[in-house]
């Protein structure tokens, strides 16, 4: 018999930690290989993690609701066999080879941080406790300041002793607020009115793991890159007419719904090849231009937002693109995405028009250089050849990393997409 370690996988290119949302098995249960073992949540995905081994689950090291670093041990499985079992798949950024594991115990490689530096040792709680306690998320820091709490003096219950929101709220409940500064109250000219207490009409809704992760990722994105944005309106009348005329017959032939999304994905991929800086990543050494296009598509779910990725989107024919998009969106809404479904995105597209929006400023999905939204298609009177005509108009909004892309290039990129969509014909489809 041997022990196999289950480690927190890397569920996204820039993800460094994940939160155990729900264990699907309990200690003592027998687990089959590839059987769903645990639900893990990050700001990018809510996914079921399958077991890479078959055997008895003997130890759960990470409790539900606990956030741990990528590569940290979250469980151990007792595996039958004389020798050590095959190691679980290492994170995507782990080295290809390493020292041999101890007999009877399977190990993955030591994970690394996004900048390439060594991460915490396998099985550790995430590094030096004092260092972790000093790292407060912006939300926790703000909450502590609002209630006059000295967060540095609290004993954290998070990973490596990190102070969490719940720790601050517990301190508020126990009365550990800072003493207010002395002040001289003015002599009232009339009896003071009793203070109005609205607390009975308020409700504290606990944040889900996904909502908390999304919030932290959005704050980190704005702090990482200087956002700039631009908007252009597009006349998509020809595209709307074609889609309205063909959607029923397309579904009958291919068994898939025909939306506007695959048309836009094909056009954006073609224009990215003209402007590769929009498909890049900033590093301290320089800008990394991606010579492949992995299109991330934002999908709204009840508790947040998930961005599955269409790999090599520019190499796919139209029908293949339709089926792939429909499959990813359906599995995202049913929490059936796999780890590889949310990794490797190079550009993100978000259809905010589905909510009725006509203009928006999206936040960049780090570490990408840009994100594009397509807004609602609305009938509007416009000038056509010195006359007034009713046309189908859609706004497109582009947010971009101003370290990489300037306003001129962003405008040219968006203008090229606009031109292709306005001049669209059935012959534009790449089969």
Quick structural overview:
This protein is an alpha+beta fold and 431 residues long. The protein is 24% helix and 24% strand. It has 8 helices and 19 strands.
Question: What does the model show?
Answer:
This protein has 431 residues and is α+β, with helices and mostly antiparallel strands. The protein folds into three domains: 2-124, RNA polymerase II/Efflux pump adaptor protein, barrel-sandwich hybrid domain (OB fold (Dihydrolipoamide Acetyltransferase, E2P), Beta Barrel); 128-174 and 216-223, Irregular (Dihydrolipoamide Transferase); 225-428, Chloramphenicol acetyltransferase-like domain (Chloramphenicol Acetyltransferase), CATH 3.30.559.10. 24% of the residues lie in helices and 24% in strands. It contains eight helices and 19 strands. Strand 11 (280-282) and strand 12 form a beta hairpin. The longest helix has 18 residues, at 237-254. The protein is globular.
Top-tier CATH class of the largest domain: Alpha Beta
CATH topology of the largest domain: Chloramphenicol Acetyltransferase
Fraction in helix: 10-25%
Question: For the residues shown, what is the average pLDDT?
Answer: 82
Number of helices: 8
Please mark out the parts with pLDDT under 50 across 5 or more consecutive residues, or reply none. 89-134, 179-184
CATH architecture of the largest domain: 2-Layer Sandwich
The profile of the biggest β sheet is: 6 strands, mixed
- Cα-atom radius of gyration: 26 Å
Q: Topology as H/E string?
A: EEEEEEEEEHHHHEHHEEEEEEHEEEH
C-alpha termini separation: 54 Å
* Total strand segments: 19
Number of domain units: 3
Tell me the structural class: alpha+beta
Q: Trace the largest sheet across and list its strands.
A: 10-19-18-17-13-16
